[in-house]
Amino acid sequence: MQASAAAERNKGPILAVLREYAGPGALRVLEVGAGAGLHAAHFARALPRTRWQPSDIDPQALRSITAYAEAMRVPNMLPPILLDVSQGWETWGGTQPATLDLLVSINMMHITELRCTEGLFKGAGVLLKPGGVLFTYG
């Protein structure tokens, strides 16, 4: 499993804000650019009524995400999917329009090309339910 000191430090404050959007009901969440998977596992475990779908473009990150899910025993975290956010939403693992409650992207926009941020916003416009939230950090 990969880990960064920054991810460890900011997982609590980010979770506090995510809780404001989680509400009492079940939520469907897609995390774009989940990286090592520490955040995905931490958030899914803390928000058990979510169905958390992590994703990343890097196969090494996908392996790390899987390791976190197994080590932390997070049943509501789905197996990670390979996702290139710069590609059309139609390639995002079969996610259908207006089915997501939350689309989460942490520490992606400032380290990727502009076309990735554009793809994220285009995908959010199609995949989020009415009232759904695009949650970004970093």
UniProtKB/TrEMBL annotation:
Belongs to the UPF0585 family. This is Methyltransferase-like 26. Coiled coil: none annotated. InterPro entries: DUF938, SAM-dependent_MTases_sf. Gene3D superfamilies: Vaccinia Virus protein VP39.
